[in-house]
Amino acid sequence: MTVTASARRKARHYAMQALYQWQMAGASLNVIEAEFHTDNDMSKTDVAYFRDLFHGVAKNLDEVEAAFTPHLDRKVDDLDPISRALLRMSSYELQHRIDVPYKVVINEAVALAKKFGPTDAYKYINGILDKTAADLRAAEVAADKNA
Fold first, then answer.
1. pLDDT at 124 exceeding the cut of 70
2. C-beta contacts of 78-81 below 8 A and 24+ residues apart
3. Which UniProt keywords apply (predicted)?
4. Cα separation, 25 vs 34, whole angstroms
């Protein structure tokens, strides 16, 4: 399958939902992943990307949270579950998926926050990820500002 923007978008959508479920239920990653494959039509999804995001966040949780925590005005556990899942997933992408432009990571997170998050959560997510991207991708952000 050719990887399209919409296949990546679906992968992020499902990864956010899987992370939400993992945070709330604490079930095993493999059980949650199997449920997603059973319950959803994954034919138009970049499944490898879904798996990378979902397992990558869980495996690197401390490192992922350390990237965005300095920019929070509250504890990670005080974030609503959707915002927490999005910040974790997006920070993982910023750290480990340098093939994806930082603006794409932020825009996708904002779109998911608008769709699933509490009112105005997308503004908070945008602000935190802007600062996180400036830390993790300083050269890319600087080049973008100077363009």
1. yes
2. 80/117, 80/118, 80/121, 81/20, 81/23, 81/24
3. RNA-binding, Transcription, Transcription antitermination, Transcription regulation
4. 15
CA-based radius of gyration for the chain: 15
Q: Mean pLDDT over all residues of the chain?
A: 94
Q: Tell me whether residue 146 is exposed, middle or buried, using C-beta atoms within 10 angstroms of its C-beta: 0 to 12, 13 to 18, 19 or more.
A: exposed
Q: What pTM, to 2 d.p., does this model score? A: 0.95
Residues spanned by the domain of 79 = 5-146
Residue 2 pLDDT level (bands cut at 50, 70, 90): low
**For residue 79, which of 121, 108, 109 has the smallest C-alpha distance?**
121
CATH number at residue 40: 1.10.940.10
Distance, CA of 21 to CA of 44 (rounded, Å) = 22
Tokens 């199997």 found at: 34
Q: How many domains does the chain have?
A: 1
Gap between the Cα atoms of 30 and 122, Å rounded: 29
Name the percent of the chain lying above pLDDT 70. 99
